[in-house]
Design a protein that fits this description.
The protein is α+β, with helices and mostly antiparallel strands. It is built from 22 helices and ten strands. It folds into three domains: 159 residues, Beta Polymerase, domain 2; 89 residues, Hydrophobic Seed Protein (Orthogonal Bundle), CATH 1.10.110.30; 129 residues, Orthogonal Bundle (cca-adding enzyme, domain 2). The chain binds adenosine-5'-triphosphate and magnesium ion (MG).
């Protein structure tokens, strides 16, 4: 009891100014555009700091994903300093300051210090609008975690810390500022942010920050599915996607984001499949290689699609319409919680639709499949399935060989299928020629893999 009280007193918020160099942060480590924004705002007489994830990541020895600037200037005043900037957002007005170089456009996000206003909330306590401006101290109190509320002044080379953020980062702790219950009520997405930041940065969520999450998980139900999708993308592209999915489920937050995770993670093959898919993604990101969101969602939802596909087939549907119906079912179920934009769901469906086609190799089918624009993604998906016992290993190996050999060898490989090397799909096709139903035609005859119009 007494220890708790002392802890509370010692943890009272209060301004601390620290030498950035002592915390391992030097001006050269920051992106020149973010420095330019701070310099120009300070020259114009405003306070300006680099804040949030960038300072936290630098302290943890990681390279920041983006640089955010917090300032005493209002959005209009920022616009005045940077003529090419634009004010965006309604719930939170922020200014985007664009910079252009050989690599394209870089945006530095500038936010005005938020005040400790009584922002309007809905019945569940969720903040609806938040455009009252205030002091740096008030702004710090409005941020989510102590580690995210550090302000770096690049000219003074100082870090301003109001909430023991430095201490928490050093102790590898993720601590909510203020009363966690109230802060989750204001914005339930903070629960998903806690999972992502803890997984990505190897931080432990402090007990008081963690405890209310299970109880308040239902509040995620009120969040628009497009925002949930954005957060889901951040989790999947965090570089620790597998750890994020496991924590999401452990903290029971998946119910309102991706309820299928329960079934998926409870089966060894499907769990191994997802783990492999997500760890591949994590490795690609670590190597600075591009990753496909369509592929990620294809992997995440495959188990459900496959279950329904098999069920439809068992009920007498032909393979392709059974798959198309299964895909449509899963999509309809998922989209209530997670609005996957068309550009990703089209790729996801094309990958799925290619799966049965890998089993049909006779005649010119294999050659035609090789020319599909989505062949590579579909093939990678097949290999992943095979590695986890969810598809025939020999089939995946056949395709590995087929795509890398010369035309003569390809012709021989296909001819060989007639001599006993054919898979179940090849055989079935030859024994039972049949007219394709219309839905199958639409899905298979199109040169691009055909999934996009489903
Ligand atoms: P990263 O950019 O590495 O994903 P980040 O912490 O910088 O992590 P951003 O979404 O860029 O995340 O947000 C910048 C800062 O804005 C955060 O560090 C935090 O201080 C504040 N912030 C973001 N989202 C919230 C929120 N939902 N509630 C309170 N503060 C937030
Ligand atoms: Mg950031």
């Amino acid at each position: 009891m007494i220890r708790k009280l002392i802890g509370k007193v010692l943890r009272r918020p209060g301004k601390k100014v620290l030498h950035a160099k002592h915390l391992g942060i030097r001006r050269e480590m920051l992106h020149s555009n973010a420095l330019k924004v701070c310099d120009k705002l300070q020259d114009a007489g405003f306070d300006a700091y680099i804040v949030g994830g960038a300072v936290r990541d630098l302290m943890l020895g990681k390279s920041p994903k983006d640089f955010d600037v917090a300032t005493s200037a209002t959005p209009e005043q920022v616009r005045h300093v940077f003529h090419r900037s634009r004010i965006i957002g309604r719930r939170f007005r922020i200014v985007h300051v664009p910079f252009y170089d050989r690599d394209g456009e870089e945006i530095i996000e500038v936010t005005t210090f938020r005040g400790a206003s009584d922002a309007p909330t809905d019945d569940a306590g969720r903040i609806l609008r938040d455009n009252v401006y205030g002091t740096i101290e008030e702004d710090a109190a409005r941020r989510d975690f102590t580690a995210n509320a550090l302000y770096y002044d690049p000219n003074a080379e100082e870090i301003v810390d109001f909430h023991h953020g430095v201490e928490d980062i050093e102790a590898k702790r993720l601590v909510m500022i203020g009363d966690p219950v109230q802060r989750y009520r204001e914005d339930p997405v903070r629960m998903l942010r806690a999972v992502r930041l803890a997984s990505k940065l190897g931080l432990t969520i402090a007990p008081a920050t963690r405890k209310p999450m299970a109880e308040l998980a239902d509040l995620l139900e009120n969040i628009p599915s497009a925002r949930i999708f954005d957060e889901m993308m951040k989790l999947l592209l965090s570089g620790k996607a597998w750890a994020c999915m496991c924590m999401l489920r452990d903290e029971k937050l998946h119910k309102h984001v991706l309820p299928l995770l329960d079934r998926l993670l409870s089966r060894p093959e499907s769990s191994a499949f997802l783990q492999k898919a997500l760890e591949n993604t994590d490795t690609r990101l670590a190597e600075d290689k591009p990753v496909s969101a369509g592929f990620l969602f294809a992997a995440l939802l495959w188990q459900e699609v496959e279950l329904r596909w098999k069920k439809n087939e068992a009920a007498g549907e032909h393979a392709m319409p059974a798959l198309v119906n299964a895909m449509n079912d899963v999509e309809a179920r998922v989209e209530k919680k997670l609005a996957i934009p068309n550009r990703y769901s089209a790729a996801m469906k094309e990958i799925w639709l290619l799966q049965p086609r890998f089993e049909q190799r006779v005649g010119m089918r294999a050659h035609r499949l090789l020319e599909q624009p989505r062949f590579r993604a579909g093939y990678d998906f097949l290999v992943l399935r095979a590695e986890c016992g969810l598809a025939d290993k020999a089939l995946a190996e056949w395709w590995t060989q087929f795509q890398y050999c010369d035309q003569d060898t390809r012709a021989a490989m296909v001819a060989n299928l007639g001599k006993g090397a054919a898979g179940a799909g090849d055989k079935k096709r030859r024994k039972k020629p049949r007219r394709k139903p219309a839905s199958e035609k639409a899905a298979t005859d199109k040169p691009d893999g055909g999934g996009s119009e489903q």
